[in-house]
Amino acid sequence: YSLYLKMLEDAISKLSSNEEKLDCTLLTEIKLSVKAYISSSYLPEDKIRLEIYRRLANTKEVNEVYEIEEKLIDRFGKLDENSLQFLSLTIIKILASKQKIKTISNYNENI
What we know:
The protein is mainly alpha-helical. Helices cover 61% and strands 5% of the residues. It has helices spanning 2-24, 46-57, 62-76, 81-98, and strands at 29-31, 103-105. α3 packs antiparallel against α4 (81-98). The longest helix is centred in the N-terminal third of the chain and has 23 residues, at 2-24. The radius of gyration is 20 Å and the shape is elongated. The N and C termini lie far apart (54 Å).
């Protein structure tokens, strides 16, 4: 019986530590009526645009988004409004995830 309790205790502690890790990777769902995307007029090559989307999706810290923004500006020039809004929403998503906010949405002009 004591072996069973020990195994149960170990399993619970393992699940608890996994749960903490999962909380850190909680992704906030954003439902806002804004145009936010990396536009093809700013970045015409699909392959590069998809790579930027992938890199932004894998960011965990705000400074990573700013680094990507700097590289984009350096390589392709000033960001257009839609691309800038996409980066801003990515930052909001990271910050909201750290605060364990599940959803950000607008309803009748209220957020």
